[in-house]
Backbone:
């Protein structure tokens, strides 16, 4: 079976070296809990549907993680050069992790890390195999950077109108 979680030591290194330089908050989770760097950040909690319950915990970025999470999402500080951040992160962690930016309509920019083997394209492949559907008969619809692999590998990839130009470039139709 493929590893679906990220090694927590790698994320601890990202937090230790880069959190205060590049990021304002983060959210990560596993099967049991959701961890947020700043739980008072209502905008972040609402954006990621994090609600106050016993499974939501606050953890300082300096505190080592106790879990190997599925992914981690960081909010980029305003005014930070995203290409610089992407270059640094890919140089140090790109061999092990998918690293991608995505923007929200209100201007927030997020950087997401997850396992290379875990993406929507892999999910479509598994579902198609399970139902015995050849990939040349698949259609995928998406609007975010995390949809690019899926749009690219499906027989027909459709980008939603609100998708960025970069995402639309991978689609067969909009």
Residues:
């Amino acid at each position: 079976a493929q590893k679906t979680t990220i090694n927590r030591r790698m994320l601890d290194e990202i937090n230790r070296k880069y959190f205060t330089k590049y990021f304002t908050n983060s959210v990560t989770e596993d099967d049991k809990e959701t961890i947020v760097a700043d739980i008072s950040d209502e905008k972040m909690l609402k954006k990621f549907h994090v609600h106050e319950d016993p499974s939501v915990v606050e953890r300082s970025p300096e505190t080592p993680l106790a879990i190997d999470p599925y992914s981690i999402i960081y909010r980029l500080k305003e005014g930070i050069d995203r290409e610089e951040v992407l270059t640094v992160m890919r140089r140090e962690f790109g061999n092990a992790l998918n690293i991608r930016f995505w923007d929200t309509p209100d201007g927030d920019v997020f950087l997401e890390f997850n396992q290379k083997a875990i993406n929507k394209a892999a999910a479509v492949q598994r579902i198609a195999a399970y139902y015995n559907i050849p990939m040349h008969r698949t259609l995928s619809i998406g609007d975010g950077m995390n949809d690019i692999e899926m749009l690219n590998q499906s027989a027909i990839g459709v980008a939603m109108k609100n998708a960025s130009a970069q995402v639309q470039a991978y689609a067969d139709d909009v």
Notes: The mean pLDDT is 87.
